[in-house]
Design brief:
5 strands; alpha+beta; HIT family, subunit A; binds guanosine-5'-monophosphate; 3 helices; 22% strand
C-alpha cells in the first residue's frame, strides 16, 4: 500500500523535509494552519490509529520524541504547542497514513468548540 506521504518519505514528491530516520519522517504541512505546522509520519503505511498494534510502539514513541526535538528546534517548546492525530471521519482525517501534527508559534485557543447543547 502506498499513499501521498509514502512518496514524500521516499523522496518521489518534493517536501520541506526537516527530519528522517528509519521509522519516521517529518516535513512542513503544505497548508499550514499556524506559524509552525509540521507533520511527523510513519515511514511505513499505517492507515489510522485503529490499525496500530503493540509492534508499532517504537514508531509511535519515536513520533513523540521527534515532535519534542522539532518543537525545540522551531523555538516553540517554551511557549507551548499542540500535537494532534486525527482518526477517520469524525476525527477529520484526510490522509490515511499515520501522522502527527505539530502545531504552534501562536496561542492556539481552545482545543475544541462545544456544539450547541453540549
Ligand atoms: P489529516 O486531516 O489527515 O490529519 O491531515 C492531512 C494533512 O496533510 C493536511 O494538513 C494537509 O494540508 C497535509 N497534506 C496533504 N497533502 C500534502 C502534501 O502533498 N504535502 C504536504 N507537505 N502536506 C500535505
Amino acid at each position: 500500500m502506498s499513499t501521498i506521504f509514502t512518496k514524500i518519505v521516499n523522496g518521489e514528491l518534493p517536501s520541506d523535509m526537516l527530519y528522517q530516520d528509519d521509522l519516521v519522517t517529518a516535513f512542513r504541512d503544505i497548508n499550514p494552519l499556524a506559524p509552525t505546522h509540521i507533520l511527523i509520519v510513519s515511514n511505513k503505511v499505517i492507515p489510522t490509529v485503529n490499525d496500530l498494534t503493540e509492534a508499532d510502539e517504537k514508531i509511535t514513541g519515536r513520533m513523540m520524541t521527534v515532535a519534542k526535538k522539532l518543537a525545540e528546534q522551531e523555538g516553540i517548546a517554551e511557549d507551548g504547542y499542540r500535537l494532534i492525530i486525527n482518526c477517520n471521519a469524525h476525527g477529520g482525517q484526510e490522509v490515511f497514513h499515520l501522522h502527527m501534527h505539530l502545531v504552534g508559534g501562536r496561542p492556539l485557543g481552545p482545543m475544541l468548540y462545544r456544539q450547541k447543547g453540549e
